[in-house]
Write a structure and sequence with these properties.
It is built from 20 helices and 17 strands. The longest helix has 29 residues, at about 695-725. With about 725 residues, it is of the alpha/beta class. The strands form 4 sheets. Strands 1, 2, 4, 10, 11, 12, 13, 14 and 15 form a 9-stranded mixed β-sheet that branches. Strands 5-6-7-9 form a 4-stranded parallel β-sheet.
Length: about 725
């Protein structure tokens, strides 16, 4: 379940490793060009790391990734189905064949499955509307009988007939606008388009407003013909494309019935009646079905009072209400029960520091075939595992342990990875250095990323060096983007990533980063023109037609991820940057100050800004002192081990044991998913929440929390200075 609404729209398709690396990310810019890449190694070990990295770049094989992709995407494999168990067994067998230590964590999760559903216009005429995609000639996957109808997991079972209200994207602001202008949805069926927030919040806000049911559809303005040619001619959603997905909005990412413990078979569970599941029927549809409803609505045009932004892409005027004569029936039947699935996790034990971990992962479950989401990232995770296992067979085992995770039931609420994090929280808190997420990661050659601040300099350097070395290795410096408007030689893109975004919600990094404070990053390679998110058409036929079948993007991403992991696993001094967090802290303060002004709230962050500036100054001095001592070979092994333990602990200083106000499962004071869309990042979330609620008392308490964080961080720097000495 990756965020399907990137800030920047992809415009290019590429086919070779020499293609453009489009930097379409947002602030901040991190300057690393003048820094030597291997400054975190002792001088006598730097050349060995360079040679290891060159070897790593040689190992990824597109053909192997294609073969694995075609195997794993051959069957529908929604969590808990026979296809899910097939994928789980194949991944476990593959890891075992590499000689890795394999854990199959069995989970018993409270998951729904669709039993039946129906949608029809009942007045002024009766018309049955489709709730499953139509087969596409030449696409055998779309004609399979063992695939699902369109469904939203955890919808209430119900059968309602009512008049209709259009709610634009179904955001909090959209429902507030309806209420402000006197449009009631009480007892009505709401129809809203996908986009701008997590679908679960559309259902939550509709239910809170008194709606009897909800229809969610893909509008052609957002993912269809307004963006490009639709499938099968192109890669965008056609009129029958239906986005499946969970609508669970609990204040945690664990199994719904075991929020504070791992969901083993015999775990003590909550009564389902005591869990805040959705209470109205929710049905996703394509725009062919939506068109039949929207075109028959006779109420007020949206442009008269609601604005042009409420007008979608269908070729008629959108209206707010259906009128007195239009009535629609929605029937949804789902069954919820304990269902078995697994996380499959492989470990390559570190040679020197086996209790320190660098982790990469992607979920393995999908809505039906999942060629893009998640498997385009899962196969990169598996190929990275193969490359490192091959090096270990050559005697080049990493100094720290590498963990390769494939997570179950992500699509139902990021459940599997959160369960694994909980089961291993003690050792992860003590020894995990970073987590890299590869959910649905590969869709072209344009490298993108979002990351915790302490990882950003490393990611930029690793991407830059991986691209430069790949150019030399492949001899493709002069290749250009195919069909790009701004084609440039690859040599102009050697900087790799120059901007990185901030991690929000929507995928498996959340448990690692927002719950137990492990700095995390999300890698992806975009650029192909298309989007059929969570639909039956996300299969190999569509994917290889849209992205290509040479699997060069997957090789590029494997190279970048592998170089990054290798540097964290092998460096003498762990390359997590202590300076970037306070730099970005001050930037985030400015954003929150502006938000407060927008809400008419007066804030004074002088004390926080001063604390961040002072900590930044100290962090710069400490970093320089450590790197200088390392260059002079003045740090013995025992001291390095102690220093690295402190570096790991610095990241945990941002955790609050009691959790965030109102959301105790989310414990990071630095970053969390927002409260109203589910995808966006709330940076400095305790401050942000207080401002959003215009709560001055909560704001004062939050400022004290952050001042305490900086005091603790400074104490850690005191410890570092004591270890290194004058």
């Amino acid at each position: 379940m990756k965020n399907p609404f990137p800030m920047f729209r992809d415009r290019q398709r590429t086919t070779t490793i020499g293609a453009l690396i489009l930097i379409a990310l947002w602030w901040p810019i991190i300057a690393v060009a003048d820094e030597p890449s291997h400054r975190h190694w002792r001088p006598d070990r730097q050349e060995a790391q360079r040679e290891l990295e060159r070897r790593l770049l040689e190992l990824p094989e597109p053909r192997r990734m294609r073969d694995m992709h075609e195997l794993l995407a051959s069957e529908p494999h929604t969590a808990g189905t026979p296809g899910d168990l097939f994928v789980i067994d194949e991944i476990a067998s593959y890891f075992e064949s590499l000689g890795l230590e394999v854990e199959k964590q069995e989970l018993w999760l409270y998951l729904p499955r669709p039993v039946d559903a129906a949608l029809e216009i009942v007045a002024p005429e009766r018309i049955a509307l489709p709730i499953k995609e139509k087969p596409i000639p030449g696409d055998p996957y779309s004609a399979r009988s063992d695939t699902s109808i369109g469904w939203n997991a955890y919808s209430a079972t119900g059968d309602v007939t009512a008049s209709v209200v259009y709610a634009n994207y179904g955001t909090k602001e959209d429902f507030e606008k309806l209420a402000e202008l006197g449009v009631s949805v009480e007892g009505k069926i709401v129809i809203a388009r996908y986009g701008r927030n997590f679908r679960g919040y559309k259902a939550k806000y509709a239910e809170q407003a008194g709606a009897a049911g909800l229809l969610i559809y893909t509008d052609p303005a957002d993912s269809g013909y307004a963006q490009g040619a639709v499938y099968p001619e192109g890669g965008y959603a056609n009129e029958h494309t239906i986005q499946r997905g969970s609508i669970l909005t609990l204040p945690h990412n664990m199994d719904p019935l075991t929020p504070d413990r791992v969901a083993t078979r015999d775990a003590e569970r909550l009564d389902p009646d005591d869990v805040d599941f959705p209470k109205i029927p929710v049905q996703p549809i394509g725009w062919a079905s939506a068109r039949e409803i929207l075109s028959r609505m006779t109420g007020e045009p949206v442009t008269e009072r609601f604005g042009r932004e409420w007008q979608g892409g269908l070729p008629f005027t959108y209206r707010i209400t259906g009128g007195d004569s239009l009535r629609v029936r929605v029937m949804v039947e789902q069954e919820r029960k304990l269902t078995r699935t697994y996380n499959v996790v492989a470990t390559l034990r570190g040679e020197r520091y086996p209790d320190e971990y660098v982790i990469v992962g992607s979920h393995h479950d999908a809505w039906d075939f999942g060629a893009h989401d998640p498997l385009s990232g899962t196969i990169v995770t598996l190929e990275a595992a193969r490359c490192f296992a091959a090096l270990a067979d050559e005697g080049l085992r990493p100094r720290r342990s590498l963990i390769f995770g494939t997570w179950g039931a992500e699509e139902f609420g990021i459940i599997g990875s959160s369960e694994w994090v909980t089961a291993h929280s003690r050792r992860l808190t003590q020894g995990a250095i970073a987590y890299f997420n590869l959910d649905a990661s590969t869709f072209g050659m344009n490298l993108r990323g979002s990351a915790a601040p302490s990882l950003k300099p490393l990611l930029i350097e690793a991407a830059r060096d991986a691209i430069s070395l790949s150019i030399e290795l492949d001899g493709m410096e002069e290749n250009h983007v195919e069909g790009a408007d701004t084609a440039r030689p690859m040599r102009e893109q050697r900087a790799g990533l120059s901007r990185l975004g901030n991690l929000g919600g929507g995928s498996d990094h959340v448990g690692f980063y927002c719950h137990i404070g492990i700095p995390s990053a999300s890698f992806s390679a975009s650029g192909a023109r298309g989007s059929i998110y969570h639909s039956l058409y996300d299969n190999l036929n569509w994917y290889q037609q849209t992205v290509g079948d040479d699997y060069e993007p997957h090789r590029m991403l494997t190279r970048v991820v592998s170089i990054t992991m290798s540097r964290l696993a092998n460096a003498d001094l762990i390359p997590l940057d202590p300076v970037q967090p306070p730099i970005e802290f001050r930037m985030h303060l400015e954003s929150i100050e502006q938000r407060a002004r927008d809400l008419g709230m007066v804030v004074d962050f002088l004390a926080l800004r001063t604390a961040a500036q002072e900590h930044e100054r100290r962090a710069r001095e400490t970093r320089a002192m450590l790197l200088d001592a390392l260059t002079r070979d003045e740090l013995p092994d025992q001291t390095l081990r102690a220093l690295n333990s402190v570096i790991i602990s610095l990241e945990r200083m941002w955790l609050r044991r009691e959790g965030l106000p109102g959301r105790p499962w989310f414990r990071s004071l630095y970053a969390s998913p927002d409260e109203t869309s589910g995808y966006a990042a709330w940076m400095l979330p305790a401050l942000r929440r207080a401002v959003e609620h215009t709560d001055e008392e909560a704001l004062a308490e939050a400022q004290m929390m952050y001042l305490n964080v900086f005091r603790n961080l400074d104490r850690m720097l005191d410890a570092v200075e004591t270890m290194v000495g004058p």
